[in-house]
Specification:
The structure holds two protein chains of two kinds. In chain A, about 0% of the residues lie in helices and about 50% in strands. Chain A has strands spanning about 5, 10-15, 20, 25, 30-40, 45-50, 60, 65-70, 75-80, 90-95, 105, 110-115. The termini of chain A are far apart. By secondary structure, chain B is an all-beta fold. In chain B, about 0% of the residues lie in helices and about 50% in strands. In chain B, strands 2, 4, 5, 6, 9, 10 and 11 form a seven-stranded mixed β-sheet that branches. In chain B, strands 1-3-8-7 form a four-stranded antiparallel β-sheet, with no helix packed on it. Chain B starts with a strand and ends with a strand. The chains are: A mainly beta, B mainly beta.
Amino acid sequence: AQKITQTQPGMFVQEKEAVTLDCTYDTSDQSYGLFWYKQPSSGEMIFLIYQGSYDEQNATEGRYSLNFQKARKSANLVISASQLGDSAMYFCAMREGSNSGYALNFGKGTSLLVTP
Amino acid sequence: NAGVTQTPKFRILKIGQSMTLQCTQDMNHNYMYWYRQDPGMGLKLIYYSVGAGITDKGEVPNGYNVSRSTTEDFPLRLELAAPSQTSVYFCASSYLGTGNTIYFGEGSWLTVV
């Protein structure tokens, strides 16, 4: 069964607008971590934001925020004031203790294109 | 700071050849991982290690082998390369637990022809 589901293969947003990238997850662990990574066309994996399962507040990092809804098993990434440089692939991932040495389990990604 | 270093960055292999992707980290991390990423897809776990001398299979281990003789190094061996192994390979490391300190290498682009 898919552990991380990203239902939006591609998204468009206009520069300076906000955009939400969806992510749902499946786990029976009580302790887990949720991550978002950005992968530009150059290929490197850039860490954006992290949310622990016990964190009561939604994580924020600059223009990135994570809308964490634990009961719905949802961890959506919100990018505010989009910039052209935000055009990239975005991956949601989960880390849980019961999985392969705490390895990250990735979704298939969402391709974001920011237009002028 | 070096972090996680992967070599080579690019390589073209012929079918049936073998090669080793090198991965070294200088952060004294216990956990190390090898992932592959096929075009347009997320990363899939090939092998992982929770410490020197301890390795285990991930989701897609067929056609690969690993070893972990030291804390720093976690090489990935491709035996009898096949076109299906054309992919981008990422090495990653972390200390332990479900925290957010996971470091990725820059990736190795491998083409098998």
